[in-house]
Design a protein that fits this description.
Layout (H helix, E strand, L loop, with lengths): L2 H16 L10 H6 L9 E4 L7 H7 L4 E5 L2 H14 L4 E5 L12 E7 L8 H11 E12 L14 H10 L3 E9 L2 E7 L1
Amino acid sequence: MNHDSNDKKHLAKVVEYLDNPEKRGGLPPEQLLDMVPINKKDTILDLGAGTGYMTIPAAKLVDGLVYALDKEPEMLQIIASKARQEGMENIKTMEGDMEEIPLSDNTIDVVIASLVLHEAKDVSQVLQQTKRVLKSDGKFICIELEKETDASNKHPRIHSSFMEKEMNAAGFKIMEKHPASDGIYILLAEK
């Protein structure tokens, strides 16, 4: 059996899943980004960027750099390929972990965490790292899967009230809350 062929099929299925807007409650990335006051000169960090679902549209909104952070090199290659196809030069892919963001303090205007924090080993650590890299008036948009009362769903989820508590404990000021729609909630916060 050809493992390389199976790996490519698996990667294709992962990409199809990650690029599906239905995964994010049917909201296209542009509509999600419209919720955040983004300026043309902003620098953006997309945590757990995956296939660039948020990275590519974010990069179209700014002249500043958009950092795509992911621990999977295959995902970063997909983002780089998409950026080349779109002729975009303001995307920088970075292999790394959300718990130890490889960026300097106070350098980012907007951090996006789209359906990725439930994968973190330590949400509190990720939030501390996010706050560390954000500039003093930086914005943080958290898009996450709402934890349901029945435990039938096998995907890890974080209850919105727990996420709010963690964000407040990390020192974020929550500006807007968009309750769960199709199992997705959105929290917009400021450092």
